[in-house]
Amino acid sequence: MKQLLRLRVNGETREVAFETSKTLLEVLREDLGLNGTKHGCELGECGTCAVLVNGEPVLSCLMLGVEAENAEIVTVEGMTQNGKPHRLQKAFADLGAAQCGYCIPGILLTAKALLDENPHPTREEIRQALSGNLCRCTGYTKILQAVELAAKEIA
Amino acid sequence: MTRKKTLSVIGKPLRKVDAMAKCAGETVYADDLNLPRMIYAKLLRSPHPHARVLGVNAARALTLDGVCAVITGQDLPEKFGIMPSTEDEEALAVDKVRYAGDPVAAVAAISESLAEQALGYIDVEYEVLKPILSIEEALASTEESQRIHTWNRRANVQKAVSLEFGDIEGGFARSDHIFEGTFFYQGNTHLPMEQYCAVGFYGPDDKLTLWSSTQTPHYLHRALAKVLKLPASRIRVIATPVGGGFGGKSDPFSHEICAAKLSMITRRPVKFTLSREECFYVHRGRHPVKMWAKTGVKSDGTIQAMQYKTFLDGGGYSSYGLASVYYTGALQTVTYKVPAYKFEGVRVFTNKPPCGPKRGHGTPQPRFAEEIQMDEIAEKLGIDPLDLRLKQLVEANSVTINGLQISSCGLRECIEKVAERAEWKKKFRKLPFGHGIGFAASAYITGAGLPIYRNDMPHSGVQIKLDRSGGVTVFCGSTDIGQGSDSILVYAIAEEFGIDPVDIRVVTADTDLTPVDLGSYSSRVTIMTGNAAIQACGKLKLMLLEAASEALEVPADDLEFAEGQVRSASLPQRGIGFAECVVKAEGKHGTLGATGSYWPPKNPREFKGSGVGPTPAYTFSTAIVELHCDGETGEIKIDKVWIAHDCGRAFNPLLVEGQTEGSVYMALGEALMEEQIFRKNGLHKIPSILEYKSPTTLETPEIETILVETIDPEGPYGAKEAGQGPLLPVVPAVSNAVYDAIGVRIHEVPITPDKILRALEGRLKAVSIPKFDFPAPLKWQPGQGVQVEQKS
Ligand code: FES
Ligand code: FES
After folding, report:
1. Domain locations along chain B
2. Residue pLDDT, tens place only, B464-514
3. In this predicted complex, what is the ipTM?
């Protein structure tokens, strides 16, 4: 059965009707056209589908769309504000931290949650924060460096 | 023509052209495509590893409301496969399944869940056959009735090869010491984060478009034409940006062919997205290989002869296996001088998902054996392992015993630099128990010298169009799988024209729009597309120079392309803007466009098997791994990896470092934890990301990359590969470091805590080597590839 729900996504209120059994991942991609959120397993094992729900990284493949009602959802599309990319996005681009790029939306959002809470994390803290996000391309080196670079820009 | 002396784009740490799109979530991968009226498809896969398919009945599935079409093997009987001489795959099994997961039927329905549900309504009658699940079983199953395939000569042997170069017996006879060892390199899979996905649409114009997450759109184009029996001219293949490939998306696949076929039937766009579990079965990853290696040396450690036997567990189909088996013997000779060399290799069929090319294709396994054996030789002879290598390195501009032409070679520098950075001399054999350091070196190809199918056409084509605005558009069949091949084209052209990379648009990987490039495999893209692009630029520059020379009244040979201008080199204030120059040249010559092509140099030493190994340029890598190994638990913690890579020229150092770091990471996964393993019933033991362990940020150590530039004469601006070679030395370096740490040799990967403990207790058995009668060797004179004797 479809249900009409009101979701807050990237600072906008969106009314959308969807099957209540749908995951947030599916609602974002299929019903809201927000394809920036990717998936690598749909079983909660890879971190690719991470989005922010009330500022916390959440695996959108494990959360039902209906559970996200009334929450503030941020996807990678919402990281660019007023046409300006987030400093993490710039740092990732500048250091070549996105190779195939497929894991990057989930990693950017997880890193954003980290920096929002801890603006100057140590490398070990970054490793811990990103340990649930697999990347098969980069060896994580440039990803860790990019998070550090973005953190440097925070006053 | 003048060439600028300083480079303004090449060698700079620029952003990739698609970097911001990827970081903004704007890149459209295959599964992000949503077309009007699109329907969704699923494959029904065999639960049995080996069975005859007696009948498939889809009638019940077709009655479900919302099911649009069902196809079975009868709809697509034509065989295909990446190598033309071993086409043994069917899109859907016609009369036999050869691994658990082999597709037998495909359903398209209005939703993915309905398609999935409909699979349960397809009735398949199987006659279950005894599966063959190991190399030994395959070699023992010689009866006709035990065959997995019928086309191959010897039952369950896909390919057996035997090559001999130089005086192998004399070499061993001259040796003061002979080292023999057996090794096992377990299979593992690519695990790209993007699941396989394809969308097919057969349009009202009777033309087929297939979008796919593929590394090889050109080969897929050919396979589709063959299996669908459509003229290739009516098929368009578009490779969407690939979310990680590593070799796993280089074969034509069932889901791609079925997406097309189902669309031909329904006339609607059809999408397949494979589940993660399916990806583990599609596989085409690293072959499990058993190896026997023998090296004869003088007492000073110089190699007199080297001999290898390799046994590859190929899985259910040939895939790239013909090349894979040769690759397990081709490159052992490309690091140290080997005066006599013999190689025997066999790839067998087993009832498991087919293996294929994974980063390093067939070469990490023998390199693992070779570098451990070198470490053992050094240990026995009391020579530092680096010194042992340094005294017998291959040299630039030389030919190996098996006829491979080396152009540039930075191996010595790679060894010296990595040793210096890691403080090798201070640490080797000097660290306390449980703390160790290990070294290994390797070589790899920059693009295969031959295409997959024999033809005389270029391996890479580039077309460039100049616009009156000063904008440049480049068209090329190359496929960006994250390595940055789109950016490489842009950097090369920006450098040639002296313009800002932002003014260049790239159109790639679309068989309708772009000239053929053979694909993103064998580390071929930078060298081949780069050279083709430079050639196309050269043609356009002649026209631009003529126009500029006239307009500026400066002789063409004093003109240069720099800083967005075509200007006098001696009087730089005399110049015109690039856009203005284009306008003048178009006025003079008409519409401005040009093509460029690249063929690898012809291999002058042709013999059977010589197709695998030659390349325009070899790269060299060295690695030092420092680790801790707990003698109580067997756990290994990698402290740091230093990696030096001779990349020719770092086209963009950020990208080269990124490829190198990614290679090290992937190597560590193979060395320590990753394995494709199967149950007795042929099912994958661990087909999920949770169970198939791969390194996270916590297991991946600090990686220090050292780029060595040798400016290869064949490379564009001197560049060679970076995407695969750096994986090779890391795996044996881990094993050598374990020995330094705790004094046990591990000849197997993955090096798990369990193996460490068994080794410490003296219970780790040597790897057993199967018995097999290899064909009599084809014998060749040193370095020349001239046949001296041939028995059939
Ligand atoms: S898709 Fe892998 S965790 Fe959600
Ligand atoms: S960039 Fe490819 S998976 Fe991370």
Report:
1. 19-27+451-598, 33-129+193-244+249-282, 289-450+605-760
2. 999 999 999 999 999 999 999 999 999 999 999 999 999 999 999 999 999
3. 0.98
Rounded to whole angstroms, the Cα distance separating B523 from B324 reads: 15
Partners of B275 on chain A (C-beta within 8 Å) are 42
- Torsion over CA: B331, B332, B335, B336 (sign): negative
Listing DSSP states for A87-136 in one string gives: HHHHHHHHHT--SS-TTHHHHHHHHHHHHHH-SS--HHHHHHHTTT---S
CA B621 to chain centre: 16
Look up the pTM and report it. Answer: 0.97
Phi then psi for B625, rounded to 5 degrees?
-115, 130
List chain B residues with CB under 8 Å of A95: 654
Specify the DSSP element, H or E, that contains B583: helix B578-589
CB contact under 8 A, A102 and B194: yes
pLDDT digits (tens, 9 = 90+) for B103-133: 999 999 999 999 999 999 999 999 999 999 9
Let me know if domain A2-77 sits in CATH 3.10.450.50: no
The answer to whether residues A37 and B242 touch, using CB atoms and an 8 Å cutoff, is no
**What span, in angstroms and rounded, lies between the C-alpha atoms of A115 and A138?**
21
CATH architecture of B289-450+605-760: 2-Layer Sandwich (3.30)
Ligand 2 centre from B675 Cα, in Å?
Answer: 20
Enclosing H/E stretch for B259: helix B254-266
Alpha-carbon distance of B650 to B640, in angstroms, equals 23
